[in-house]
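Q: For a teaching handout, I want to show students what a protein-ligand complex looks like in token form. Below are the inputs, and the small molecule is NA7. Please produce the holo structure.
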Amino acid sequence: MIETDYEVLVIGAGVAGICQIKKLQENGIKSLVLEAGGGLGGTWYNNRYPGCRFDSESYTYGYAFSRDLLDSWHWKELFSPQPENLKYLNFVADKFDLHKHIRLNAAVEAMCWNEAQRQWSVTLASGEVLTSQFVITCTGALGVPTLPSYPGMDDFEGPSFHSYNWPHTPLDLAGKRVGVIGTGASGIQIIADIADEVGALTVFQRRPNWSVPLNNREISEAEMADIRRRYDAIFATCAKSNGGFDHLPDRRGYETVSVAERRALWDSLYDAPGFALLLANFPETFLDARANRDLSDYVAERIRARVHDPDVADRLIPKDHGFGMRRMPMETGYFEAYNRDNVELVSLLETPIERVTPTGVETSAANYDFDVLVYATGFDVMTGAFDKIDIKGVDGDRLKDKWIGSPTTYLGIMVHRFPNMLMVAGPQSVSGSTNYPRAIEVSVDWVTGLLTHARATGVSRIEAQSAAETEWTKEVIEMQENMPFSKVKSWFTGYNSNIHARDAAPRYVAYWGGAPRYTKILNKVSSEGFADIQMD
Ligand code: NA7
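A: Here is the structure, written as tokens, with NA7 included.
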């Protein structure tokens, strides 16, 4: 029997929620996780598409909070695939006996702040209402998929779905005619993975993305033993890196090294694992327009060398943004897929989709027939999960209304007039811009520290002050505007072409000041006794 009064309700049992409930239980806080899905794991429970895997080195993605956990898990690949990642998260829940603190199939529909009782009423889809002193949202960054609005989408006769909703039961694609719309991180993983299995694959690409090899491989027992010995050093590097990765930039100075030396570095980074070419490069290649052009030219050359048809290669090379200026998908054999006879690239910039028909897709130039149609068309990022819940704070103010243009927060963790609501990996935190779990653990510890502080000092209501929220949001905007990609439309800058209101202006949904700066700010706030938070 689930009790109705909790000290803390956590929403979401993904990477953040699992970590958060562990820390709450450790501190003896009466708490429960409410998870909408039929299993824990969040992103790694939901995304079941072929080719779905980490772009972060696996050993930097696992939790760092327990030495015993680090010592008992073997990452089998440098970039672990979805089924293994889900297994890992279940392993964590088993190991720390967390399942009993997670309620599945418990979608939260509404949350209402009760000022007199100083508590939240949380309404589930079933109609059940739970009350809790605090709510911690762990609702994830990319969990609300968005579809295009082409006429006829409902008429397609075969299976059609968003990449996030890929069927959980096996879908046999052998010999099938498959259409994939979208070439972001998800689309690129799918395309490369299924190209040799399907009968015919048609890729509908709007704006091409820069993409470089993931360079995945297996991790042997011996290498894993070595990783375990080096864990402290690995996490120390992640803490120093702006993106929270095991890659640090080359600070020799772009202009001080010869063209041949730059080329040698780029050749080695192109063949190195993960985001090396982006993060272990000269910082100037990201920050300085000329250096960025040089690197973009280099990567374009590598693409041309891999794609046999020069026209196809040209269509795959971005012209509207430089290397690293949008979230870069990582690939394994993606460009080679276009050398296959059964794979065709359709550029929607040249021939846009006009409608979906019962048998396929009609562009301005041709009709394509499919057995299966996949929409890898992205997400309502960062704020989407909040908009799905009717969140009412002081005097019934709606969070959705407050965030209508762009969100405003204090540290990406609290919102003025929404007392006792804390967000882990929320909008304007550093999570959206970094290696997710590294930032999550920092936020979870901070949030848990705040709650234990409130508990110890007999505080029952905490609220970010309005001025502090304004200050933080100003910092978030400033950091984004300083980014060389601030004018490039992508989810990094809060755009989504499939949501009318999110296609006109940038939104400030992530903190771009880097993980070290963010951590330093959080530490300062807690060491100074949370001065910007009203506590009573
Ligand atoms: P992304 O990165 O947002 O990519 C979505 C892709 O879908 C992108 O290529 C879009 O083209 C394309 N798209 C979106 N809407 C349409 C319409 N209406 N018509 C045609 N093409 C469209 O989402 P992903 O799922 O790939 O990756 C999300 C994150 O998951 C990723 O960043 C990682 O953090 C993990 P566009 O570029 O907008 O022209």
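A: Two things your students might notice: The pocket of NA7 is lined by residues 142, 148, 163, 181-187, 206-207, 327, 348, 376-379, 491, 497-498 (CB under 6 Å). The domain at 6-142+380-531 is CATH 3.50.50.60 (FAD/NAD(P)-binding domain).
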